[in-house]
Amino acid sequence: MRPVAIIGAGMIPFGKLADQSLMQMLARAALAALDDAGRSESGADALFVANVGGGILQHRTAIASSLADLLALLPAAAELVENGPASGASAAKAGLLAVASGYYDSVLVVGGEKMHGSPTAQITDFIASMTHPHAEYPYGVTMTGMGGMYARLYMEKYNLSPTHLQAVSVKNHAMGALNPYAHFQLPIDPERIFDGPFAEINNPVLADPLRLYDLCPISDGAAALVLSTVEIAESLKKPYVLVSGFGQATDTHTLVQRDDPLDLKAVRLAARAAFDMARLSPADVDVAELHDAFTILEIAISEEVGFFEKGAGGDAVLDGKTCLGGQIPINISGGLKARGHPLGATGVAQLVEIVWQLRHELPPERQVENAQIGLTVNFGGFANNVLCFILKRVAP
Amino acid sequence: MSEEIKLIAYRCRNCGRVHYPRCERCLTCKKREFDEIRPQGKATLLTFTAVYSLPVGFEDQQMLCLGVVEFENQVRALGQISAAPSALKEGMALTASWGAIRRREGQTLYGLILAP
Ligand SMILES: [Zn+2]
After folding, report:
1. Most CB within 10 Å of its CB: which of A147, A257, B61, B79?
2. B45-82 burial, b for 16+ CB within 10 Å, e for fewer?
3. Are A108 and A33 within 8 A, CB to CB?
4. How far away, in angstroms, is A99 Cα from ligand 1 center?
5. Over 70: is that where the pLDDT of A166 sits?
6. How far apart are CA A199 and CA A106, in angstroms?
7. Which residues of chain A are within 8 Å of residue B53 when distances are taken between CB atoms?
């Protein structure tokens, strides 16, 4: 395997993008990444597209071929990668292996999702279609319902309180407010959302014990990366990012089938594989983007990755260890909670954020000082398919 | 409430691991022979939630209470709970029955129903 660089990153602001079609969103993010890589005209040898709902919600299939045409990348190779909410990281992995193998020198990875435009019950049902068809789906359990059952177990076992969960939400909304690409750009006023007389109305229970402000929103969005050989990256004569570690692991489809439902084993195994490949340890990481589809997950993943002992992740948030300037800044983009979670876009957007952090291009209020190593965790289902990347800054 | 619980779990003939839902190979020993078993004994509530944002098929409901139970013969399954979440506590025993759980495209789906 030869080393692989990320030389371009781009995304469109996430949100409720009523005036943009799925293909327009993907194309705009792709062009931003190509421009960033200095490949506005040369394009890429291959295209990997991450998307989950195109066939169901937009009645569009085989969209990678369509996007290659739309972007005038022809005759570049093109594929669609569908891996549930982990599709974005899976498309990036496909790009990584394509360049590492020596077959392609440059690859464009684009992830996107258009989730608005359908009735909410239909979107909820579409997301629930990744649950087990007999043991889960017919009962009406949603991903949020799984999150609620997981949160109850976790809170009971580790004595975690709603205050811990609120701290994640407050941090991620505060960071989202500084990120022009985030869906939500308003910091949380704890008095109004958590404590005041209207807290029950502003922050209702949606999947007991999880409340509205524990859950990521439904968002539209797209993000893109350009991967290349190190030779191409070096020729650009500016800082770039190297993929220094990658790992992936699967776990049982259903939570009930796991020996310990609290154990996010696939997260641990994916992270361990990535650290082994990078020859690094959790203490070496300067900034991380973790899959906080629910506030509880940011805490649980931060432990499985190895940033904190099991059960210590909640207090770490309260103590400010995961905020900007803390021991390990987590979800400085706002995370899924505030940036949003357009399924196919998420894994790519996490990597875009880390690329920006490692190139030291962000405004000081949201730049992790002198960041050299970054990590992402993107997962599908309820942690049944997990991908972890470790990226490293290279300055010529 | 008296209808037989039609849920089928699969016990590995080699190592005894109980699977629900079914897997084609045992998750522990990778063998392929299973005995079909039904849930037996009391159902202990492991965790639960009340969901207030429901997918299609629950239009006449505001809230859906769901939980995971473990039966005495190690069968673990998700079910709908006919109770308010305030009446529930992890570790409590629930009674299990088989009944209508959802309407989907003109059909009634049946499944595990739990109650205190
Ligand atoms: Zn076995």
Report:
1. B79
2. bbbbbbbbbbbbbbeeeeebbbbbbbbeebbbbbbbbe
3. yes
4. 40
5. yes
6. 50
7. 120, 124, 142, 144, 206-207
Report whether pLDDT(B4) > 90.
no
Instruction: Please state the ipTM of this predicted complex.
Output: 0.95
> What is the residue range of A31's domain?
4-118+218-235
Radius of gyration of chain A (CA): 20
Q: How far is ligand 1, taken at its centre, from the CA of residue A315, in Å?
A: 40
Residue matched to tokens 């500084």: A178
In one-letter notation, the amino acid at residue A152 is R
User: Is residue A26 assigned to a domain?
Assistant: yes
- Residue B1: per-residue pLDDT: 44
Distance from CA of A189 to the nearest CA of B (A): 24
Mutation test of the interface with chain A: which of B66, B76, B88, B112, choosing the one with the most A Cβ atoms within 10 A?
B66
Q: Which of B7, B53, B101, B108 to mutate to test the interface with A (most CBs of A within 10 A)?
A: B53
For residue B3, pLDDT beyond 80: no
Give the Cα separation of A187 and A377 in Å (integer). 24
Q: Position A317: which residue type?
A: V
Question: Residue A138: which of B19, B68, B109 has the nearest Cβ?
Answer: B109
Distance CA A176, CA A111 (A): 20
Residues of A in contact with B48 (CB under 8 A): 149, 152, 208
In a domain, A66, yes or no: yes
What is the rounded distance in angstroms from the CA atom of residue A249 to the CA atom of residue A382? 13
Rounded to two decimals, what is the model's pTM?
0.97
* Phi-psi category of residue B91: left, alpha or beta, with phi > 0 → left and psi -120 to 50 → alpha: left
Structure tokens, A116: 């608005």
In a domain, A113, yes or no: yes
Inter-chain residue contact A140 with B52, CB threshold 8 Å: no
- In this structure, is residue A364 part of a structural domain? no
The yes-or-no verdict on residue A118 having pLDDT over 90 is no
Environment of ion ligand 1 (residues, CB < 5 A): B 12, 14-15, 17, 26, 28-29
